[in-house]
Amino acid sequence: MDRLPRWADVALVPLISLLLAAIISALVLLSIGQSPVEAFDVMVDGALGSAYGWGYTLYYTTSFIFTGLSVTFAFHASMFNIGGEGQAQLGGLGVALVALALPWPHWTLALAAATLGAALFGAAWAAIPAYLQARRGSHIVITTIMFNYIAAAFLVYLLVDVLRPAGQMDPASARFPEGAHLPALNDIPGLNLIFTKPVPANVTLFIALAMAVVVWAILWQTRLGYQIRAFGKSEPAARYAGINPTFIIMVAMLMSGALAGMMSVNNVMGEAERLLQNSSEGAGFIGIAVALMGRNHPFGVVLAALLFGFLYQGGAELGLWTSIPIEMRIVVQGLVILFTGALDMMVRMLLARIFALFRSRQPGVA
Q1: Dist. CA 69–CA 75, nearest whole Å
Q2: Where are the alpha helices (DSSP H) in 169-326?
Q3: What is the three-class DSSP state of 297?
Q4: Which residue ranges does UniProt annotate as crossing the membrane (predicted)?
Q5: Which of 73, 154, 248, 273 is spaced 20 to 30 A from 352 at the CA atom?
Q6: Residue 66 in contact with residue 92, Cβ under 8 Å?
Q7: Higher-confidence position of 341 and 121
Q8: Which 8-state DSSP code applies to residue 268?
Q9: Domain ranges of the chain
Q10: How far is the C-alpha of 150 from the C-alpha of 56, rounded, in Å?
Q11: What is the rounded average pLDDT of the residues 132-153?
Q12: How far apart are CA 141 and CA 352, in angstroms?
């Protein structure tokens, strides 16, 4: 198959995939007697038409950046980490334990400690599947799937029997102290002129963006990153070059788990301000689609996370203001995943043929 120009591979293929997903989504809406134009208007207005809508879109975007980066980091070591959901839930446990440990004097101290706790707990939960892959040959996909369910069950046990305050009915931890309250975007000077109403998006957004830069720097600007990418391209060649596979697998998965765990700072500490069941809210699985659509590049992940943040908030608006079922959000997400993942090669092959035909018709090209 002819190679596509770099710009076409990075921008045109995802754009066409999105367009195909939008067309199929419109046909689905028409088939149930709904207006695609009305649905699009409601989604855009609800997610992007006001500062309040942007506050929710950016809140979801923050979580998806972390989990998308998690999948991306492992992917470059040729590992498909689909355990981000469980790693994020254990990261939430780390956040809760840190936040409840002390009467924090200021949110900056609490944020730094909670971020570290989330990263450590997420990395620890990823370390077991990583070890099984590196030393026992257990497939990382199978073990990370299993550990999602183990994490969910473990968290339910802790919330019901250990962390739940006496006299409280719902399975949740105690509320975090006032010193662990993170400022939302509407609390930040300057941004409060834009976000005039309370919104869930908080300072964790800036940590997510910073981590995108950190991941890019590690993978493309360091020797370790070169070793990870070399191992991901060809394990036998990497072994021949003296790269330790056990070291690479462990480092890549620990970093991947840490990134997934850090997601919980956004919703556990920044929004709920206590640990709840299903604190990850499915973001671990959405991170897979975000990484695929972002071409496993940190800056692509940020853009893809923004798209899925729009779909999440826009889908919620559909359920509130129209008779279109909120499940349509899941349909659209599934179509985006289908065309950017499973059918990506179909779009790529079609564009390659078009570019090859165009080049063959240029003067002087045989």
Answers
A1: 10
A2: 204-221, 223-233, 235-240, 245-264, 283-293, 298-321
A3: coil
A4: 12-33, 53-75, 110-128, 140-160, 199-220, 241-263, 301-324, 330-351
A5: 73
A6: no
A7: 121
A8: I
A9: 51-305
A10: 30
A11: 94
A12: 31
Q: Is the pLDDT of residue 365 over 70?
A: no
Q: Which is it for the CA torsion 78, 82, 88, 94, positive or negative?
A: negative
* Separation of alpha carbons 218 and 236, rounded Å: 23
Buried b (16+ CB within 10 A) or exposed e, 79-89: bebbbbbbbbb
Token pair recorded at residue 320: 């509130």
What is this structure's pTM? Answer: 0.92
What are 172's strand-pairing partners? 276
Q: Is 1 helix (H, G, I), strand (E, B) or coil?
A: coil
What tokens were used for 329?
């959000």
Nearest to 58 by CA among 238, 289, 329, 270: 270
Mean pLDDT of 247-274: 96
Q: Contact 200/59 with Cβ under 8 angstroms? A: yes
Give the Å distances, CA to CA, from 143 to 53, 219, 226. 38, 25, 26
**Amino acid letter, 38:** E
Tens digit of each residue's pLDDT (9 = 90 or more) over 7-59? 777 778 888 888 888 899 899 889 888 888 988 899 999 999 999 999 999 99
C-alpha dihedral sign at 156, 157, 162, 166: positive
Query: Which CATH number is associated with domain 51-305?
Result: 1.10.3470
Looking at residue 98, its amino acid is V
Tokens 């990870």 correspond to what residue?
228
Here the tokens at position 114 are 């909670």
Angle at the Cα of 286 from the Cα atoms of 36 and 42, rounded to 5 degrees: 25
Instruction: Please tell me whether residue 172 adopts helix, strand or coil conformation.
Output: strand
Through-space distance between the first and last CA atoms of the chain, rounded to whole angstroms: 17
Cβ-based neighbour number of residue 349 at 10 Å = 13
